[in-house]
Design brief:
Helix content is 26%, strand content 19%. It is of the alpha+beta class. A seven-stranded mixed sheet has the order 14-15-16-3-17-25-18, covered by helices on one side. The longest helix is centred in the C-terminal third of the chain and has 18 residues, at 564-581.
Length: 632
């Protein structure tokens, strides 16, 4: 999604994804964003959480795909989700201080005050916050959560992998559809009818309610990272009652579009008070926010619950980079996304501007699939020749302002216990080795270099076009001709889909499948990239159409065992298999906010700090607006 967030944005737009490297430095009653400057590692000054301004203006470079419709969370949309955390809060949140400062991922209570896991690791019981209301006054309770979860299941077309591509539940006992939705509509969710309660409390279904503030998730097999699947997207809580009162969910092939411009109420510190399509979204502070009277210490413990420091916030969509820079320089906007064309204006004024830079364990990555179902990239030695014939340094400089760091996929570097367990070095430029691999392949298939390879790139993706040109030149050194097709984004993404779709559309996808933007997580579990890129159950992301029994066993082990040694052994074997199979060009991890260069920029004389997206751009390109603090 990442243009969109990992799979999200990439689905429909060739835009670039922005992520912020935030680290909340808790200092008494204040916190600040950790933002290394170009030449030093310093943090911005702290500011009292009591300071309030009237209006905060932010310039972003993109309009959210699918507008503001939270029903699309089942497809990892909308992206960027400017409403995340500020309007929609998750069941489970994370320790952002540990995550961004230390690379440690720790789950914390969100709208679920607490949870427990059964001894066998299969049953999670969530105890929800009480006396919480959505911004329109509707009560938040377990019935609302139950309705949202099964609503997503319904919108997925009753897919067993409806939760972020994770096949965690046995959905066979479930009979949820229009009849149940009609019953929910007739009953309401504040005090459900007995007929509806009989369904909601049915423990043969994998998700069920035991009382108004307790909901149970029963997994088909143990998965110790289950809380990490509900930190965003389908874990964001919205007012299901409002959905029912305004036309319902829609259907799996036609989601209710009313919510595109009439966002569903959330429980967070802000609500949407106005919007203009493709122009701006306005937020006002929520007078019903449950955390409005949090103490400074409580905010310091979890800054994501901050009630906010601006009475009003406006996020503008401004496609022109010069316009965004002009707004920032004249203080018309206090924070702006500045990209490659004007990046030198930021770096040449280090005393004026601060910008976001990611830590070494960042989870925003660049990659390109090598189609394992299309000749001749279906030959392993050809793929090995390709990954060793690429001048990665050249790509970094020409496509990303040098702001990439080599990595070895599929695991994110943040999951240290499962990253590159075989200690493989990232693929590097070695033309001699590449020619040796190609020679081995040509012994069996002598016409390889007479085949024209196809690499499709979405229009408007400057970084993608530049990267494709480097790859084209590098492949020429092997005698391979690569034809680059620049397509409109809708045409570009149309053949992509789940694993089966990508296999079926292999000829249309071409030998090289450029992801089109950075890829960031939709969940916080170590299984994320395995499911997306190398699993045969992938709903979005397996551009290579790759599957292998050893790799699939590792994916299964993640969701069937609680024994660390067993999981580690399976992952280590799978990592070795992936390294030798080379289904992807693991291009690198981002060190700046945007894939085409640039970052999120502000003046420290005005902005003291802010936080953003625990999913490293997986959910949004903008700061978490309720966490922005001011210097003056």
């Amino acid at each position: 999604m990442f243009l969109l967030s990992r799979r999200a944005v990439t689905r429909t737009q060739g835009v670039l994804v922005i992520v912020i490297v935030v680290a909340a430095l808790v200092v008494g009653a204040a916190y600040t964003l950790y933002t290394p400057s170009p030449s030093q590692m310093t943090s911005t000054s702290t500011q009292s959480t009591s300071m309030i301004v009237d209006t905060l203006s932010i310039d972003d470079y993109i309009w959210p795909v699918d507008d503001l419709n939270q029903l699309y969370a089942v497809s990892l949309l909308p992206w960027p989700d400017w409403l995340s955390t500020a309007v929609y809060q998750p069941l489970v949140t994370v320790n952002v201080t540990a995550e961004y400062q230390q690379g440690i991922i720790q789950y914390l209570p969100g709208l679920a005050d607490s949870w427990s896991m059964s001894a066998d690791g299969k049953t999670y019981t969530f105890n929800l916050k009480q006396n919480v209301r959505f911004s329109n006054g509707d009560p938040f309770n377990a019935y609302q959560v139950w309705g949202e979860m099964y609503g997503f299941y319904y919108l997925s077309g009753n897919s067993s992998a409806w939760l972020e591509s994770y096949s965690l539940f046995d959905m066979s006992p479930v009979n949820f559809g229009p009849a149940t939705i009609n019953l929910m509509t007739e009953s309401g969710l504040a005090n459900p009818s007995q007929a509806l309660l009989n369904i909601m409390t049915n423990s043969s279904w994998p998700i069920y309610v035991t009382d108004p503030y307790t909901i149970v998730f029963h997994l088909a097999a143990p998965f110790v990272w289950f809380p990490g699947t509900v930190v965003a997207f389908e874990g964001f809580m919205f007012d299901t009652q409002y959905v029912l009162e305004n036309g319902g969910f829609g259907t799996p092939v036609s989601f209710n579009s009313y919510f595109n411009q009439h966002p569903i109420p959330g429980t967070g510190p802000y609500f949407v008070s106005g919007m203009s399509e493709n122009a701006y979204v306005k937020f006002d502070q929520n007078p019903l926010y449950w955390g409005a009277n949090m103490t400074a210490d409580e905010i310091a413990q979890q800054p994501l619950n901050d009630p906010g420091h601006a009475k009003h916030v406006i996020i503008y969509c401004k496609l022109d980079d010069v316009a965004r820079y002009t707004d920032l320089s004249t203080n018309a906007a206090q924070i702006a996304a500045i990209q490659a064309p004007d990046w030198n204006l930021v770096t040449s004024n280090p005393q004026t501007y601060s910008y976001v830079k990611m830590p070494p364990w960042a989870m925003e990555i660049e990659l390109t699939g090598l189609n394992v179902n299309l000749y001749p990239t279906n030959i392993r030695e050809v793929r090995q020749a390709i990954v060793h014939a690429i001048n990665y340094t050249d790509i970094y400089q020409k496509a990303f302002l040098g702001a990439l760091t080599p990595f070895m996929g599929p695991e994110y570097t943040a999951w240290k216990d499962y990253y590159d367990l075989g200690n493989f070095q990232p693929y590097n430029y070695n033309l001699t080795l590449a020619k040796q691999y190609l020679a081995i392949a040509e012994q069996k298939y002598p016409n390889i270099t007479s085949t024209t390879f196809l690499m499709r790139v979405p229009a408007g993706s400057t970084s993608g076009i530049n990267e494709a040109q480097v790859i084209q030149a590098d492949m020429a050194q092997l005698g391979i001709t690569v034809n680059i097709e620049v397509l409109q984004t809708a045409t570009y993404w149309s053949p992509y889909g789940n694993y089966q779709t990508n296999v079926a559309n292999a000829a249309e996808l071409g030998q090289f499948s450029y992801i089109g933007a950075p890829w960031a997580p939709a969940t916080l579990t170590p299984l994320e990239n395995w499911v997306d890129f190398v699993g045969n159950g992938s709903l979005w992301g397996n551009w290579a159409g790759y599957s292998n029994p050893i790799v699939q066993n590792a994916i299964t082990t993640f969701t069937s065992s609680t024994d660390t040694a067993t999981i580690t052994a399976a992952v280590k074997e799978a990592q070795a298999q992936i390294y030798y199979d080379a289904p992807y060009i693991w291009t690198g991890t981002h060190t700046l906010w945007g894939p085409a260069g640039g970052s999120l920029v502000w003046k420290p004389t005005i902005i003291a700090g802010f936080m953003t997206d625990p999913l490293w751009t997986g959910q949004s390109s903008a700061p978490l607006i309720n966490t922005v603090t001011f210097s003056s």
